[in-house]
Amino acid sequence: MVPTYRLNATTISVKETTVKYLLAIYSNPRNWAHPTFRHQAGVGDDDVAAMQVQFDELLAEITGSGELVEGVPLADPALARTIRVREGVAASTDGPYAEAKEQIAGYFLIDCESPERAAEIAARFPDARFGAVEVRPVMDLSGGLEM
Q1: CATH of the domain at 42
Q2: Which of 12, 73, 112, 114 could form a disulfide with 34 if both were Cys (CB 3.0 to 4.6 A apart)?
Q3: pLDDT tens by residue, 88-113
Q4: What pTM was computed for the model?
């Protein structure tokens, strides 16, 4: 519900503001499959099942609250191509941009009230136990950070 206020016989509606955050899920490409937490060496079936329940509950919560905008898994980094243009000439390299131990496995776009809430959601992704979940505010091109 949008709060309304009276000011000098005029009713003013104030839109509650939220900020979009990108949650980038990082994982080691050697066990590339989705969701990545289901494919970690040394993790027992009971632990995987418990993490799946936690993940499903998290998705249900942020879907129900309207905070989940989108979630997308990415293909194996070995399938990536990196394009660079130098002096007007495009060059293509097979593989990801950075040679790193962890690559972006996918992302979730959320729309929530604060950076603290975004960090709370990120910490609840089971993938954070094995790789990392980066939280980054999304820019609003009409005026800087969407804050």
Answers
A1: 3.30.70.1060
A2: 73
A3: 999 998 877 777 778 889 999 999 99
A4: 0.78
